[in-house]
Design a protein that fits this description.
Layout (H helix, E strand, L loop, with lengths): L1 E10 L2 E7 L1 H4 L7 E5 L10 E4 L2 E3 L2 E7 L3 H7 L6 E8 L11 E7 L6 H10 L3 E8 L13 E5 L6 E2 L2 H9 L7 E6 L2 H13 L3 E5 L15 E4 L6 E3 H4 L2 E3 L3 E2 L2
Parallel strand pairs: 8-9, 8-12, 9-10, 10-11, 12-13
Antiparallel strand pairs: 1-2, 1-7, 2-6, 3-4, 3-7, 5-6, 13-16, 14-15, 14-17
Bound molecules: flavin-adenine dinucleotide and FE2/S2 (inorganic) cluster.
Flavin-adenine dinucleotide binds next to β4, β6 and α2.
């Protein structure tokens, strides 16, 4: 059980929830998530997964938008409320490597793990370029990120187009070896990003956002198809949510 410290709407429809969770804060790494019981009754029945967005001492931050019942309940939490959370869960991003510049590519709430990832990468003296995509300019948050480039579907900020179009424009004519891509967002965006990484021969890690239930390998409800043929599926909750783009097939 952890206590809510603060809950605020940071930009149009996007909430930031700060939790006092020292046991999670000290053991977590970027790319990991927590699984939250959003209400006290039976609805919603299943826990909901959220990336650990940032760690500051004993505190962890989450970033989310209201999609359904669970996120609506979270958006109404107040300071001093208690929350039942499991975590940290999942495999963190692979940050080590001889690349010079990390390319962080987030679609919608896919930016959620990036503040924590940015902190880690800066400590490793990596350069960072961040590419953020949203439907419209009001939904863009740049909090705790660095060197942010923006794309919006309606063209109200930055490039009119997708965040993958934006990265494609940037990569044109750049040497590929010194980069590593870290991507997070909806599955179709990650699929296009994976194709772009492969075409440009850039190493790429993806954090998947698909449906999940137990969050710890019991229900078998979160399979992703493997590309290497050693086995057919991996579980996103225990073998992910981060995967090298070459190891999985997104459909
Ligand atoms: C590892 C992991 C980390 C995540 N981190 C974050 C995060 O940091 N911030 C955040 O906002 N979200 C994150 N998500 C997604 C988040 O868990 C879902 O948005 C949340 O479970 C929705 O719960 P709900 O009860 O509000 O909606 P539900 O009632 O469960 O869903 C309402 C509708 O939205 C659809 N839906 C549910 N989840 C998704 C989804 N992920 N993508 C597209 N459609 C969906 C459902 O099919 C349904 O139609 C993460 C998911 C995973 C697996
Ligand atoms: S969510 Fe239950 S096994 Fe992954």
């Amino acid at each position: 059980m952890v206590k809510v410290v603060d809950r605020r709407e940071i930009v149009d429809g996007i909430f930031n929830l700060i939790l006092h969770a020292p046991e999670i804060a000290y053991r977590s790494a970027p790319g990991q998530f927590i699984n939250i019981r959003c209400g006290e009754g039976c609805l919603p029945l299943l826990r909901r997964p959220f990336s650990i967005s940032r760690v500051d001492g004993d505190l962890i931050d989450l970033m989310f938008n209201v999609i359904g019942h669970g996120t609506r309940m979270l958006s109404s939490k107040r300071a001093e409320d208690s929350l039942d959370v499991l975590g940290p869960l999942g495999v963190p991003f692979g940050i080590a490597g001889d690349y010079e510049t990390a390319l962080l590519v987030g679609g919608g709430l896919g930016i959620a793990p990036f503040p924590f990832l940015t902190d880690f990468l800066l400590k490793q003296k990596k350069k960072i370029l961040t590419f953020v995509g949203a439907r419209t300019g009001h939904q863009i948050s740049e909090r705790y990120m660095t060197n942010v480039h923006v794309a919006t579907d309606d063209g109200t900020r930055g490039l009119r187009g997708t965040v993958v179009d934006l990265l494609k424009q940037y990569l044109a004519g750049q040497p590929s070896r010194k980069y590593k891509i870290f991507g997070c967002g909806p599955t179709q965006m990650l699929k296009t990003l994976s194709e772009l990484a492969s075409a440009n021969d850039v190493d790429c890690e993806l954090s998947l956002e698909g449906d999940m239930a137990c969050g710890m390998g019991i229900c078998q409800g979160c399979p992703v198809e493997r590309a290497d043929g050693k086995k057919k599926y991996s579980l996103v909750c225990t073998e992910g949510p981060t995967f090298n783009s070459k190891d999985i097939i997104l459909r």
